[in-house]
Design a protein that fits this description.
The chain is an alpha/beta fold and 499 residues long. It has 17 helices and 26 strands. The chain is 30% helix and 27% strand. Helix 1 (17-30) packs parallel to helix 2 and helix 1 (17-30) crosses helix 16 (468-486). 47% of the residues are buried.
Length: 499
């Protein structure tokens, strides 16, 4: 049976659109359909490499995983990776096409070429999958950007999608934000909005029975033909703490632990200003042997058994900040006192003798000394490497980085991993000092076991490690069950069945 595309848009950012879309990808898969996610334009530092070696937003990779299919650039044809408050790297169909100032990017000139690209990506996806589960971006009522919008209601018009508005009741102002978001739409776009989902409800659900009625009453609009459009509340989804889905935005890091703990292996992720791909650490968060926390506090770093310097969108800037705020010396001191240090991607580059940027790819800094823990040197370049990789013992991950790294001076080669295609990756000085370009390395049980081996005495007190792939699938199923329970799926199917 053919289903219309369904699109989840929001009253603002971080209202839960990505997770709701992931839930519906899983629900449709469970119900025998072949769904695929789609977000025309994403702005995030969390990205992922497709099997073909191209780059998309991590959220769409997660949604594809929930749908049980490989991710593809058609699922997120346009990705903006912020480099500062005003500029972003623009990734089109998986490949960077340059850096753009926000003002220049959102001007109308040249937008139709980008619109044609994202529309074409949707068309290719819609020809292969049923249904396409679409996601908007931010708020649908940013009137100053409506003429240049590629991702919200103009995309819904192109896809002929049924639109559901997601509002976050936890942040307050739900009635105003839902009503205003709909009322500010043009009539043709308002008619596409077929329902409302209230997300992140806390407390006794019965307390919102009257609220549901009020919301439907105020979201009843007169149409030009004299009829009325009453937009129903299709579900009220409670807040949850026991379902773990990878987050898209670094704002979620504020909710994570920032201190060490007793009784397990303490793993500190250095909190960089431009941290990227922080989903590298989701598996560690769920490992019962580990307490994971994020910090750049020099005292907290001394309490860690393992310190991980993560990926970053601005290696030189964050390296400068580590030196300025004392965290660099704290990491070196902790390692001398017995802590294991692991660098991933940009963090791997920072652990070396130097990071050079002769062509000013990242900015005005041409060279900075690294932490000196690995005898390597990195030279930044404009060419970006993006690929999925298989390495030692069938482990899997992906690379997304700029720059080339090699041994410094007469330092010998000492790769951390051997890739399946014969290439080498990373550098290891000892089992307590190493670096790699591979994101997702910590999703592999074999490597995590290796990383934790020096702390066998602590591990003896912990439970057995778990299967992260099985864990993630269990979480998608739990999310789907949670959404099914609180959303009127029968009514949603009535909306999207192609009659």
């Amino acid at each position: 049976m053919k289903l219309h595309p369904i699109m989840f848009v929001g009253t603002g950012s971080d209202v839960g659109k990505s997770v709701v879309a992931a839930a519906f990808c899983r629900i449709f898969k469970q119900d025998g359909y072949s769904p695929a996610p789609f977000k025309a334009q994403n702005m995030a530092l969390n990205s992922y490499a497709t099997p073909e070696g191209f780059e998309i937003g991590r959220a769409q990779a997660v949604q594809a995983e929930a749908a049980g299919i490989p991710c593809h650039t058609d699922m997120n044809p346009l990705l903006l990776k912020p480099q500062s408050d005003h500029t972003s790297q623009v990734v089109l169909n998986g490949k960077p096409i340059g850096n753009r100032d926000a003002y220049d990017y959102f001007r109308r000139e040249g937008r139709e070429e980008l619109r044609a690209e994202v529309n074409a990506a949707f068309d290719r996806l819609a020809a292969r999958y049923n249904p396409v589960v679409m996601e908007g971006a931010g708020s649908i009522s940013e009137l100053n950007l409506v003429d240049s919008d590629l991702v919200n209601m103009p995309m819904a018009r192109h896809a002929n999608a049924d639109v559901i508005l997601v509002g976050d009741i936890d942040r307050g102002g739900l009635f105003a934000s839902v009503y205003g978001s709909i009322a500010l739409q043009k009539v043709e776009d308002r008619k596409r909005i077929k329902g409302i989902i209230v997300n992140k409800f806390r407390g006794d659900m019965r307390l919102f029975d009257k609220g549901r009625q009020i919301l439907e009453d105020i979201c009843t609009f007169d149409l030009p033909d004299g009829t009325k459009q009453r937009i129903p509340v299709l579900g009220v989804i409670p807040y949850y703490n026991d379902i773990h889905i990878e987050e898209e935005d670094s704002v979620s890091l504020g909710n994570k632990s920032h201190t060490a703990s007793q009784g397990c292996v303490n793993v500190a992720v250095v909190l960089l200003q431009h941290i990227s791909n922080f989903t590298d650490f989701d598996a560690l968060e769920q490992d019962p042997r580990i307490h994971l926390f994020y910090t750049n506090n020099v005292d907290d770093l001394q309490k860690a058994d393992v310190i991980i310097v993560p990926g970053t969108k601005s290696t030189l800037h964050d390296l400068y900040e580590l030196r300025r705020n004392g965290a660099a010396q704290a990491i070196i001191r902790a390692h001398r006192n017995g802590a294991t240090v692991l660098g991933i991607c940009g963090g791997y580059q920072m652990l070396g003798i130097e990071v050079c940027d002769p062509d000013r790819v990242e900015g005005d800094i041409e060279r900075l000394p690294g932490l000196g823990l690995l005898p390597i040197t990195t030279s930044m370049s404009g060419e970006k490497t993006t690929r999925q990789v298989t390495f030692d013992e069938g482990m899997r991950g992906y690379e997304i980085h700029m720059g080339e790294t090699r041994p410094f001076g007469d330092a010998p080669d000492s790769p951390l991993f051997s890739l399946s295609d014969g290439r080498k990756d990373g550098y290891i000085v000892s089992e307590q000092c190493m670096g790699t370009y591979i994101h997702g390395v910590l999703d592999n049980k074999q490597y995590v076991d290796r990383l934790l081996k020096p702390f066998a005495e602590k591990l003896a007190k912990a439970s057995e490690p778990f299967d992260y792939e099985a864990f993630k699938n269990e979480q998608y199923d739990k999310l789907a069950a949670h959404v099914r329970k609180y959303v009127d799926m029968e009514r949603i199917y009535e909306l999207i069945i192609d009659k």
